[in-house]
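Module 6 notes. Inverse folding takes a fixed backbone as the condition and produces residue identities as the prediction. Think of it as a translation problem where the source language is geometry and the target language is the twenty amino acids. Below is one complete input and output pair. Work through it position by position during the lab.
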């Protein structure tokens, strides 16, 4: 009989596509933002050209020119950039569905956070993606939109609110990927609902021999700038899955706000640099990003030294193995007993003392410093049990005491 792990293969396929589509999208997006900012004006540019830039790449020289609204005559062949964004979203949503909807009970829901049924959790998840876009779009159309900084602050607040609610609805890991996916949806929404339709309208008026409305291009540019500043934070939210220390704490929504500020500061540095500013005049962006990152690391590493922590006794090896048998071995064993887990995930077995020694770093990371294991805390592991595991590992994993 074929023993096909469907979820794993779909996960692999969608992830492969998602990463490649995402690289293409961000690559073109970074390039066009750079190009736009590097355009220079001079006196003998053709009519309607706002600036030009010379690029060298792959053995040749390119002369890039930007027609601010549109050329007088439409070229025969015009290259559009949109499928990178669409495929990034489609593959990303498919990947999210395979992991978090198919495996809702293990990955999406954390009963200690909120006791949801899978269908409820999935509905909330979809609601966040749609709702995030609708609110963002309304903000951009509101009177705020003429004040760039105010609008940015409102979008920042929207994401912070969403992060707050998501971390109080889903598992920490799911909450982080949802913030990333919600922001990603906003970015793709900008391409699909605003930037490309506006560009199509411009093309249509050109074909009809009319003068296109310059506002259409300006709105597109505005949305595209938002996308640009959101790129770095979104990537971090996506890879946060590998770093439980980011999402596994009570105030992880604050982590999201710091990540937004760090990512946007770094992006701002590059944007200013591309306009031709000398690097030494750009004094504040990197120090700000570094300072915020230091705050983030300190915030996540700070542990209150209570007496109960200090007094924890090093348990015996028998006690530790017993804890693992109850809380880990249903999934991490030669013969698993959890109905959802056929083989020990990642080949990590946690049945004997030598297993525990071998994987002590992983145990510390996933079950002591964070609560990402047991998955969805299915076995209801207590803090005392986590501290006992931690005390044994930190004491050098003695055979007896
Ligand atoms: C309900 C099933 C289940 C239980 C119970 C469980 N795990 Fe896991 N564990 C998984 C799955 C699934 C993965 C694969 C990683 C993923 O997809 O998140 C995993 C991965 C791991 C990893 C490897 C992570 C990596 O970096 O690749 C470690 C370490 C781990 N678990 C430790 C533990 C410990 C310690 C316990 C008990 C305290 C435990 N697990 C209980 C399902 C479980």
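Target side of the pair, the amino acids:
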């Amino acid at each position: 009989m074929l023993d096909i792990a469907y979820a794993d293969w779909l996960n692999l396929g969608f992830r492969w596509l998602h990463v490649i589509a995402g690289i293409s999208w961000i690559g073109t997006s970074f390039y066009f933002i750079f190009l736009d900012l590097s355009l220079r004006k001079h006196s003998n540019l053709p009519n309607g050209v706002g600036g030009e830039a010379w690029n060298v790449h792959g053995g040749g020289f390119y002369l890039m020119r930007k027609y601010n609204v549109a050329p007088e005559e439409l070229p025969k062949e015009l290259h559009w950039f949109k499928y990178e964004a669409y495929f990034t979203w489609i593959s990303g949503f498919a990947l999210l569905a395979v992991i978090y909807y198919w495996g809702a009970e293990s990955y999406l829901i954390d009963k200690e956070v909120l006791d949801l049924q899978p269908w409820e959790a999935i509905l909330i998840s979809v609601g966040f993606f749609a709702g995030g876009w609708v609110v963002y779009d309304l903000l951009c159309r509101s009177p705020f939109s003429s004040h760039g900084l105010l609008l940015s602050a409102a979008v920042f607040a929207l994401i912070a609110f969403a992060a707050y609610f998501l971390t109080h609805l889903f598992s920490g890991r799911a909450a982080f990927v949802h913030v990333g996916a919600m922001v990603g949806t906003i970015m793709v929404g900008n391409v699909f609902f605003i930037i490309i339709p506006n560009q199509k309208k411009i093309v249509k008026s050109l074909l009809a021999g009319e003068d296109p409305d310059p506002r259409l291009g300006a709105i597109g540019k505005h949305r595209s700038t938002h996308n640009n500043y959101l790129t770095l934070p979104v990537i971090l939210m996506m890879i946060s899955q590998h770093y439980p220390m980011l999402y596994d704490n009570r105030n992880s929504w604050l982590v999201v706000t710091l990540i937004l500020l760090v990512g946007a500061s770094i992006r701002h540095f590059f944007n200013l640099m591309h306009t031709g500013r000398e690097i030494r005049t750009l004094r504040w962006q990197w120090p700000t990003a570094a300072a915020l990152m230091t705050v983030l690391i300190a915030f996540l590493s700070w542990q209150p030294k209570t007496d109960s922590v200090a007094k924890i006794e090093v348990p015996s090896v028998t006690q530790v193995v017993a804890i693992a048998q109850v809380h880990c071995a249903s999934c991490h064993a030669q013969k698993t007993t959890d109905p959802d887990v056929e083989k020990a995930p990642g080949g990590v077995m946690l049945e004997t003392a030598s297993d525990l020694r071998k994987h002590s770093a992983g145990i510390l990371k996933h079950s002591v410093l964070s609560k990402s294991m047991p998955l969805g805390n299915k076995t209801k592991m207590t803090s005392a049990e986590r501290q006992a595991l931690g005390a044994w590992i930190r004491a050098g994993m003695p055979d007896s005491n």
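Reference fact for the lab report: Residues 327-328, 330-332, 338, 341, 345-346, 348, 350, 359, 362-363, 366-367, 373-375, 378-379, 381 surround heme C (CB under 6 Å).
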